[in-house]
Amino acid sequence: METQHAATGKPAWVERVLMRCPGQCAVCRAWSTARVCADCLLRYARPAPRCWTCAARLPPELSGRREAKCGRCLREPPPLDRTVAALDYSFPWDGLLQHYKFHQALDLRETLLERLQQALSIAQVEPPDWLLPVPLAPERLKERGYNQSYELARALARRRKLACDAHLLLRVRSTTQQARLPLQERGHNVKQAFAVEPGRLADLRGSHVAVLDDVMTSGATVFEIARVLRQAGAAHVEAWVVARTPEGGSDSIRR
């Protein structure tokens, strides 16, 4: 049975066509010069209090409290110094991110980038020495034609005048797609899947690094990357992500 779009009630195949229409909001289909209109941003993109180290949502009463952490991170501190997430990976951002990631909807990049820019400004992040996109396996890069994280990272680097390098961090082992695995198996799946370019170790020594990814769920991918970067000598490692999957949230894209 054909599913319907949650905001408009139109069949999903109609929505896939309308997603490409210029001049319309990608969420509610109102006429708009922006890909997501101001009303939808107000409704679906409000900042939320988040855990300092994993960006999980925190209770509203912790809003404004600096370095507040969730219970999980207090019990088992992750290898990240900080995580900044712009949005929840839920309607409408889950659908927009899937469209951007799998259907070459690069026209959505600016909207996603603006949300991340806003989150970074609110978080008052320090500029890192390196901004590194999560690398794709060669076969996945060939299949998609682009690395969605690198497209965001290089645009963000231009805006913030940061050093972005897509070759400093390498994916050295192909892995099963994280979305196909239960959460408890994802850490093992990406273990030893990443490495630093051997000739560039000196560039990382004592550095502040931000790792950029589109979606974070279990944290397995960015946690493994953080371990690799620390072993290579990085002094401070953060994750910057567009969307963070809420507890019990969407299974469509999980990393």
Automatic annotation (TrEMBL):
Residues 193-249 form the Phosphoribosyltransferase domain. Transmembrane segments: none annotated. Gene3D superfamilies: 3.40.50.2020. InterPro entries: ComF/GntX_DNA_util-trans, PRTase-like, PRTase_dom. It comes from the Bacteria. Belongs to the ComF/GntX family. This is Phosphoribosyltransferase domain-containing protein. It comes from Kinneretia aquatilis.
